[in-house]
């Protein structure tokens, strides 16, 4: 079974003034920590909501420091079950993102054709 695992990361960013600046720096910082070993992990802005359901920006800023929510998407191949995919993704990403809190948001099974299309599209770039 192949799975797509989405992991949320809380990335601290220092000396920023705006949420957009914090997100750009967090994506860049995360990309540097993951590459070249995990260049197949996709990095996206995370989504946050308040308890009342209001959409919030992905970065919380206080005193020129920010905590940015990012979603890291990774395909895991040849696993027995969802829990196995979760553990592999957390281990692989967690080894490179030291001291960054991680939480697995979702695990979904993917068919072999979708994963093959995605990897061949990555090679074309």
TrEMBL record:
InterPro entries: UPF0212
Pfam families: DUF555
NCBIfam families: PRK03922.1 (NF003035)
Protein family per UniProt: Belongs to the UPF0212 family.
Name listed for the protein in its UniProt record: UPF0212 protein ACFPM1_02810
Lineage: Archaea, Methanobacteriati, Methanobacteriota, Stenosarchaea group, Halobacteria
């Amino acid at each position: 079974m192949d799975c797509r695992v989405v992991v949320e990361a809380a990335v601290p960013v220092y000396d920023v003034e705006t949420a957009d600046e914090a997100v750009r720096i967090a994506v860049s910082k995360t990309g540097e920590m993951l590459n070249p070993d995990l260049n197949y992990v996709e990095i996206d802005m995370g989504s946050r909501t308040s308890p009342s359901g209001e959409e919030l920006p992905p970065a919380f800023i206080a005193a020129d420091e920010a905590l940015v929510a990012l979603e890291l998407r990774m395909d895991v191949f040849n696993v027995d079950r969802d829990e196995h995919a979760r553990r592999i993704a957390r281990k692989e990403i967690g080894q490179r993102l030291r001291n960054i809190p991680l939480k697995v948001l979702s695990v979904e099974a993917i068919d072999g054709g979708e994963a093959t299309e995605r990897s061949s599209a990555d090679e074309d770039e």
